[in-house]
């Protein structure tokens, strides 16, 4: 709460990332508080979010663990809380003790920052550091302390909840498990959502990428932490949910999303039980995520698959991946609609009897397999283009490429038949094949990235500029895909962890409520389908120019013969002129 209040009211920082600096626009500035002290207060208040997380899990561990490693006395627990809160303010002191001379720092930064916004010159920008080395180490040290403590308390609590101890009855242990999972989800889901803008700011500082629009949006999203924590608290705790505004749909003054969905379903003569009404908010979120995934993949097709800087096989590969995800999300949306019309948003025997549901379920699994297999095939195609360029440009490869496309579609069709055959062995083959394609793509993509980077950095005498241009594009696209894959794996690992806890530990829901757990897991898949395409787009340096970076006009590019040929040159234009400079006549 304090961190959000500081960001939105008292500080209101205007950041100019990748510069480690900015200007506060909040009440503290109007009160005349120096920027130096505002930095200390701002960093410290944001860090209190981490200390609060540690203190919450320490409290949970203290009440759960009857014997073992824990803080017993009230004094020791208070000192522990004070220590963690003090760390949040102390970690930034080394950075504040080395604040550079502002005039000198501003001149030095102006030499390397690309197209700074007008505010860089118009505002009294405070530069905390000319480079991010010291602040990077300070923040990393603070995070390491908090993560180590939080991880210890989480693991210790989990061990005592899983182990069969006589000091806790079965009923008490189950209640403690549910409460612990509720607290865990309540804390980490807002952290995960707010972590996206934080990750962008770190990425911006590390790579030197500047986009003022994204900087401002990142600060807005970071300020939503308390709001999201409140929403998740209401959703996760039944007593809050029953007494909160989410169930006040009978009041005409307040029209919530739950009320809207309830009236829509009543107009369709659908009977929804009071138990399923608790899931209407999640249904709304699922619809938003599905639409977001559709838009994101269409954007990937438009911005990457139709770019001239990529060869035809690369464009076809990306197009197949994104188009299969689009069909996959449409099929899932129709599936969900059929289930909603049958009385519940979950998969159930009633909606599974409908022919349209069975057809969409088949399309859903088939396009999912096409997406997984085409990603692996795309990576192999990139390796061939890097390692064996002559074969990659031959007619033989073109024939093999289209044969592989057809084979992958047939294979995906067969795997979907296996999944819907009702045979347990065939269904296991489908599951193993899916995971095999997913896991094999990462090492292949690493090979493609390392190879393209090594060959691209070779001397110009080794390859001509056209070949270096091709290698550069391969390096960029493989790097962006590798980055997106890592995020993809992290989200999938978290979703599979939740699924494993449900199947083998009976967490979250009872055994006969599999549909509810599948609904939650699908929401994580849909988050993935939104993040993956934007990770590819934003990490690829050739695609960042689609966003407006600054109001400062470009000077354009002049060709080798002295003629100004283009006002906003693309990467391809620059390479063409470089090629002419090396191979053309001397002027």
TrEMBL record:
Alphabetic keyword roster: Membrane, Signal, Transmembrane, Transmembrane helix
InterPro entries: 7TM_GPCR_serpentine_rcpt_Srh (IPR019422), Nematode_rcpt-like_serp_H (IPR053220)
Highest taxon listed in the record's lineage: Eukaryota
Stretch forming the signal peptide: 1-21
Transmembrane segments: 31-57, 78-97, 143-162, 183-205, 217-236, 281-301, 313-334, 399-422, 428-448, 477-499, 519-539
Name of the protein in its database record: Uncharacterized protein
